[in-house]
TrEMBL record:
Residues 189-210 are annotated as: Disordered. Residues 194-204 have a biased composition (Basic and acidic residues). Keywords: Coiled coil, Leucine-rich repeat, Repeat. Residues 308-342 form a coiled coil. Residues 67-194 form the Disease resistance R13L4/SHOC-2-like LRR domain. InterPro entries: Leu-rich_rpt, Leu-rich_rpt_typical-subtyp, LRR_dom_sf, LRR_domain-containing, LRR_R13L4/SHOC2-like. Pfam families: LRR_14. This is E3 ubiquitin-protein ligase LRSAM1-like protein. It comes from Dinothrombium tinctorium. It comes from the Eukaryota. One of its GO terms (cellular component) is cytoplasm.
Length: 613
């Protein structure tokens, strides 16, 4: 967990550093685009084109994780034609793309501290290249393509262990000033007539002034004598050994300084990351406050615009009133010429205006009466529906009506059974027993007619009771109670209803589910409708836990736990205590199997083939 947090924090700091450097590179007027020390394995899209647009001629991508020089649709090397300085040091480069030949203006190329083994031949097309740094790579031999770049001034190829000999063509580089190589590399060509003279140069191209560079010069004079040559070679060898020991001590000291510098750089980088994080946080806070201020300003401006709109509307209204007054004044001035004629015309206009106003008023009154009539009819329809719902609830609550309905259903089932038996006997030609069946049918039909009559009587009694309540409602004075009368009566009837009847009215048909809800008590009343769904059965409740009950719609964990306990209690009641009987011990029936015949069942009243029971 700690490692994950550290990695996430490292990724966030890397993204912040990359964003900061991208912003600095774009806003800084200097011709440098620096994305070093960002731990990039892929270059962000558009970097090359930004170098072209912002006219940056120096691109620094050192201390990253590149395996190759990026060249894709979002970053094409062709966009770096005007680049003069390119730094890919301290990466993981294994090869150089052949499209580097498009960098025709390139003067310095730094590829040190990578994993390069060879250079492409297209590098020879860089006619303006002056400095190339190939230190700390994996070259197996001196790259021959360098001898074809006649504009080179500085070549650095130290710490490449497999480079043991320099090519002879190196002498053709007339502009070469500095060649940095290891001390183990041999002469240019020992058998040539032109000898190489290696001199120690005291110049230091690095920032620490701790390394030495070898300056190569070609001496075209005649060779000295053998003794002088041996003497000079011995002196040079001794001087080289002294320089090697001095260089080793300097290298060790430089390594120590490098470690100290790296630690300081790391601490500085962490401080910069913290500062960036604080700046980002402050930026977010400023952004939030700015957004809040903008929202307040927007609301204020909206209020101001609304106020100005109202003021403009009031001004226009006043202007129209003033214009009307002015027109009336002008009209009065003109009317003084012919006062009688204008008075008659004015009187006629008033009469016409009054008649038009009367017609308009009558039309408005008719529309108002029509609207009132529509509202009255709608209220009457709603009250009628409420009254019918209340009457239906009374029928469902009435035990005598319920008893009669159940008896009617039993008689209808009995008549259906007699019809089925009669059809079977007809198919088996049993005419002798038909008389008994007809008597039973006659008796059940008479019972059915009597029960239907009693049902109608009971429904009429309930209807009379509802009509009496309607008369009481009509006699009420308070209009608000009069409008909600049937709703209040329905709610009062539901509150007086027992929990079992309420469950039956809601639609909970499973007896086990009804018993579970009855055991839970009145706390389950707000959630009764959730158990009326057909998929909520006793078997499903056995498989549900408290979380599933809460997902069903019960918003209280205590009630869900109460329901779970009631389900477990009901399961214990229904679980048989005796062991299951063994069906194998029972004797198989000796009678032949029942032969089933197809037949249609007809109604006992209208003798239709289809029955809806």
């Amino acid at each position: 967990m700690f490692l994950r947090k550290f990695v996430n924090k490292d990724n966030e700091s890397k993204e912040r550093i990359l964003e900061h450097k991208m912003h600095i590179s774009q806003s800084n007027p200097a011709p440098v685009f620096d994305l070093s020390d960002c731990r990039l394995s892929q270059l962000p899209s558009g970097v090359y084109i930004m170098c072209k647009v912002y006219r940056k001629d120096r691109l620094i991508l050192s201390n990253n994780l590149f395996n190759k020089i990026p060249n894709n649709e979002s970053n094409r090397v062709e966009d770096l034609r005007n680049l003069k300085y390119l730094n890919f040091s301290f990466n993981r480069l294994t090869k150089i793309t052949s499209k580097i030949s498009f960098l025709i203006e390139l003067e310095e190329l730094h590829l040190n501290s990578n994993k390069l083994k060879a250079l492409p031949e297209s590098l020879s097309q860089l006619k303006n290249l002056k400095v190339i740094d190939l230190n700390d790579n994996c070259f197996e031999s001196f790259p021959s393509v360098l001898t074809q770049i006649r504009s080179l001034n500085v070549i650095r190829i130290r710490n490449n262990d497999k480079v043991k000999q320099l090519p002879l063509n190196l002498v053709h580089l007339k502009n070469l000033v500095v060649l940095e190589i290891d001390t183990t590399v041999g002469d240019l060509n020992e058998t040539s007539e032109e000898e190489s003279k290696v001199e120690m140069s005291g110049k230091d191209d690095d920032s620490d002034n701790e390394t030495y560079a070898y300056e190569v010069k070609i001496n075209t004079n005649k060779a000295p004598s053998s003794e002088e040559k041996k003497k000079k070679l011995l002196e040079c060898e001794k001087q080289l050994q002294d320089d090697i020991s001095t260089q080793q001590s300097l290298l060790s000291a430089s390594e120590m300084k490098k470690k100290v510098l790296l630690s300081e750089l790391y601490s500085e980088q962490m401080n910069v990351a913290k500062d960036l994080e604080m700046l980002q946080l402050k930026k977010v806070q400023n952004k939030a406050s700015l957004i809040k201020t903008l929202c307040l300003l927007e609301n204020h401006s909206n209020n101001l615009i609304n106020y100005l709109n109202r003021w403009e509307a009031r001004r226009l209204q006043q202007k129209s009133i003033l214009d009307e007054i002015e027109e009336n004044h002008k009209r009065l001035q003109k009317s003084q010429v012919s006062l009688k004629k204008n008075a008659v015309v004015k009187a006629m206009q008033h009469c016409l205006q009054d008649s038009a106003d009367d017609r308009t008023m009558q039309l408005l009154l008719k529309n108002k009466e029509a609207n009132q009539e529509m509202v009255r009819e709608q209220l009457l329809r709603e009250q009628t529906l409420q009254k019918e719902a209340f009457e239906m609830l009374q029928r469902e609550r009435d035990q005598q009506h319920r008893f009669i309905s159940n008896q009617i259903k039993l008689i209808e089932k009995g008549l259906l059974a007699l019809t089925q038996a009669e059809m079977q006997r007809k198919s088996h030609n049993l005419d002798a027993i038909m008389t008994n069946v007809c008597e039973q049918r006659t008796y059940l039909a008479s019972c059915l007619a009597q029960l239907l009559k009693e049902k109608e009587n009971r429904e009429s009694v309930i209807h009379n009771f509802v009509e009496n309540l309607e008369e009481e409602r009509s006699a009420m004075i308070d209009r608000s109670e009069n409008n909600d009368f049937w709703l209040l009566e329905y709610q009062r009837a539901m509150n007086d209803e027992s929990l079992e009847n309420q469950l039956r009215i809601v639609g909970v048909e499973d007896e086990n589910v009804q018993q579970i809800l009855i055991d839970c008590g009145e706390q389950i009343l707000p959630y009764m409708h959730l158990f009326a769904a057909p998929n909520v059965t006793f078997d499903r409740l056995l498989q549900m836990n408290e979380k599933e009950l809460i997902a069903l719609g019960i918003d209280s964990y205590d009630i869900a736990q109460m329901i779970t306990q009631a389900v477990q209690k009901r399961e214990k009641v229904l679980l048989p205590s005796a062991p299951p009987c063994d069906d194998d011990d029972e004797a198989a029936p000796s009678a032949p199997p029942l032969i089933k015949y197809w037949y249609q069942v007809e109604c006992v009243i209208c003798l239709n083939n289809e029955v809806s029971i």
